[in-house]
Amino acid sequence: MNRRWLAYPYVVWMIAFILVPLFMIFYYGVTKDDGGQIVFTAEFIKKTFEPIYFNAMAKSFLYAGFATLICLVLAYPLALILAGKAGKSSAMLFIFILPMWMNFLLRTYAWLTLLETNNGVVNTLLRLLHLPSINILGTPNAIILGMVYNFLPFMVLPIYNTLVKIDPYILEAAHDLGADSFQRLIRVVFPLSLPGVMSGITMVFMPAVTSFVIPNLLGSGKVNLIGNLIEQQFLMTYNWGFGSAMSLILMIIILLAMGLMKRFDKGNLEGGAGRW
Amino acid sequence: MVKKGLERIYLGLILLFLYAPIFTLMIFSFNDSKSRAKWGGFTLKWYQSMFNDPIIVKSLYYTLTIALISAVIATVIGTAAAIGIQAMSRKRRETIMNVTYLPVLNADIVTGIAFMLFFIGIGLKLGFSTMLLAHITFNIPYVILSVLPKLRSMNKYTYEAALDLGATSIMAVRKVILPEIAPNIITGFLLAFTLSLDDFVISYFTAGNGVSNLSITIYTMTRRGIKPEINAISTIMFMAILILLLTINKRREKAVRKEKY
Amino acid sequence: MKKLLIVILAGVLILSACSKGPETDTSKPYAGATLNIYNWGDYIAENTLTRFTEETGIKVNYEMFDSNEIMYTKYKSGAVDYDVLIPSDYMIEKLILEEELVKLDFDNIPNSEYIDESFKGLAYDKNDEYSVPYMWGTVGILYNTSMVDEEVDSWNILWDEKYSGQIIMQNSVRDAFAVALKKLGHSVNSTSKAEVDQALEALKEQSPLVQAYVIDEVKDKMIGNEAALAVIYSGEAIFTADENEDLAYAIPKEGTNLWFDSMVIPKSTQNQEAAEAFINFMCDPETAFNNTDYIGYSTPHKEAKEMLADEIKNDPAAYPSKEVLDNCEVFVDLGQEMTEYYNEKWNELKASLN
Fold it and tell me: What is the torsion angle, in degrees rounded to the nearest 10, for the CA atoms of residue C39, residue C41, residue C43 and residue C47?
């Protein structure tokens, strides 16, 4: 029996449930009902490139990009520290994942309580310490903060998982060959952790780009990101064609970006830690 | 020693960041005012009235049930898939992985509506089963994404060595591969469970027949404002899981210590 | 660890097997029937559904939505056969125009006589054939008397630079445009692109002064003294005034939006009589009172209103005078083209903010 067969239940499931939404957005995104007949049309795709919508998409990528970067910068040292403690207690890891178990909307509302300008908790404390207040709600910074907050655990987990299983002998070998801690980190540990980093980036960037709750609550409704616009097309203007077209373009752009990332990763880790 | 200190400070800061909103919510679950903007005094009344609203109770029940079942099934299918995918030729693997990423790439609303149309199309009435199927579907990619990196960086020769030593495929998988990736499987399961707990849009469009989950209940309250009982329930859920995890961890530590001797 | 999981799983399965099926007590009129009811979130007293099932034997599958549009999307898809919907005015009109609703048999809804006459013949259901009002209210300005020392009687105050950064608007295309349109003296249902463009200009002009465009966050912001002025629904205003004594509610002289959430029966219903029994039950004085008491919004039910405390009955914010009401407009459906136009302009507004 071949291991490959283990994947087949999934493949069947995939065809049914994953390709269907894909088909739907293709169908709605490039066709329209022209007096009873279904014809191909590029009007929805073209509309996506109109300034308002295109800028919203660009902005979404920008904010999500920053958020992902910040997540990576914060999560990597965290994962390193936790991986170092791995033997002693994995409860540590769980404690960092635990916040995800409280409803996302509730936690975002809680940030409002913390960040309100006049009577928010943070500003009240700052005022007590005679420090200047922070007026962050309604600015892009608040949105990025919200994204980082909500998606940080998604970045920590996969990186931690790959770090923990790096064969300690490799680290010893590097040390024996004269590498100091820093060199070891850059030239041995980091490359070995790349699959985890890639996973993390995938799991953070995507949902960040399409988030609509965070811009509404933390952005004080002043920013329309692509998630808001797509939601609007499906629910307010019932223009499913346009909503689908936007989703389609989004998906293609991201796939292209991922394709580029794969080049980065190519051949890097086939065989991984056990090359000896 | 400085390093240890710095590490501690860093951990502490991140913990503070992650838990600030959670502590805020927990504190406000004892607030004698319905508003998040003012403190009305300490009270336990929300914990008492929590179970008075049948809608909240039902939502909680379905939330936990669907999250648990969908996470288990997604983990099984996802892990099997990851193992199988790892063994495939590069081309096939890349195609499948690209398709796996797709649900992650789509805005929730697109996925939600697409599922709804799909279920209508195959004549399946919305209800428990449709929500379950939807949850399993969006969970599986995350399980695969958790397990696959470890499989990729795992020593591929140990599996072959096991086969050489006389194990059947199944035995080799069970005794060699699974233990190696066990932590990743658990991670995948936890991720799936978490995602399931939190999902609104997809659940909304695949729910029916009186089935609702806590996320739907919470999100649909946004026009009116979120009831403090929700804070109470969330606090209890959170504490319950925290205690559960700490207990499991203690038992594991005990087991590990026993092994050492 | 494995054992624990198995125990949990088993527990869950047992629980699901134990859930009760519908009552088949034949002494009750509709025993064994099930209704699919679709209503706003947190918009019914906690005991109403249980009381209903006890009295009639009908099991209720209760679903909730947080916007008319998301309700419409799910309803229209045919995914669930709903028996009763409780949408807002303009959405009801849209459903009527699309022939989605059935005409009510008022012989089965005798309690509808309790609905106040002034709520008959509403714009979206002129002949009262399809709907029975459930809750209503107005949209107005909530202001903090310690931050605003002048009289608040016009929408213009929301454009006053004195209150820069202290103004809160609704994050909803129709509600925001309604304010601008009224300020300019137009109808909230304007189908003139020129007028809508004017409203957009007004909103753009206002935007540097606006602290936030929000939905329910307006309550906590005002209670927390974060802003001086806000556009808010009357029901929410009453709640905030209770929590913060400095807050007061005013309906501007230019007029405002009068809104209704009413009960309707869509044609997907499998049991119209049972659905009508539900609507009748909701119009029963005790139920109507429980609902308005719990929700805190204004009720169109004469008896229920009588049962309310004086301070609520006589509160002009909750129950404004006929004069004020006559100056109000109810939303109507704008039609596909204008709906798209309004939304495009709304997107333009948001795009201009940064």
Answer: 90
Q: CA-to-CA distance for C99 and C83, rounded, in angstroms?
A: 15
Q: Of A102, A158, A210, which is closest to B25 when you measure between CB atoms?
A: A102
Which residues of chain C neighbour B217 with C-beta distances below 8 Å? 41, 64
Structure confidence by residue, pLDDT tens digits, C91-116: 999 999 999 999 999 999 999 999 99
Of the listed ranges A73-82, B113-122, C85-94, the one predicted with least confidence: B113-122
Please check whether residue C302 lies inside any domain of the structure: yes
A25-59 per-position pLDDT tens digit:
788 888 877 766 778 888 888 888 898 899 999 99
Mark yes or no for CB contact A255/B98 under 8 Å. yes
Test A104 with B198 for CB contact under 8 angstroms: yes
Helix, strand and coil percent figures for chain B, each rounded to 5: 80, 0, 20
Q: Is some CB atom of chain A closer than 8 A to the CB atom of C172?
A: no
Q: Which residues of A touch C176 (CB under 8 A)?
A: none
- What CATH number should be reported for the domain holding residue C49? 3.40.190.10
Query: Count of domains in chain C?
Result: 2
Domain hosting residue A238, numbered range: 38-262
Is the domain of C243 the same as that of C266? no
pLDDT per residue as tens digits for the range A56-96:
999 999 999 999 999 999 999 998 888 877 665 566 777 88
pLDDT tier, C2 (very low <50, low <70, confident <90, very high otherwise): low
My answer on whether C185 and C268 are in the same domain is: no
Q: What is the pLDDT of residues A204-243, one digit of tens each?
A: 888 899 888 899 999 998 988 998 998 898 888 888 888 8
Q: Which domain holds residue C157?
A: 137-258+321-352
Task: Answer whether residue A236 is part of any domain.
Answer: yes
**Which residues are paired to C38 by β-bridges?**
C63, C85
Residues of A in contact with B14 (CB under 8 A): 74, 78, 96, 152
* Cβ atoms < 10 Å from Cβ of B90: 9
Q: Report, in angstroms and rounded to the nearest whole number, the Rg of chain B calculated over CA atoms.
A: 22
By CB atoms closer than 10 A (0-12, 13-18, 19+), residue C158 is buried
Stated pTM of the model: 0.86
- Tell which residue, A25, A212, B128, has the closest CA to residue C67: A212
Domains contained in chain B, CATH given:
53-226 (1.10.3720.10)
Examine the domain organization and report whether C89 and C211 are in the same domain: no
How many C-alpha atoms does C37 have within 13 Å on its Cβ side? Answer: 28
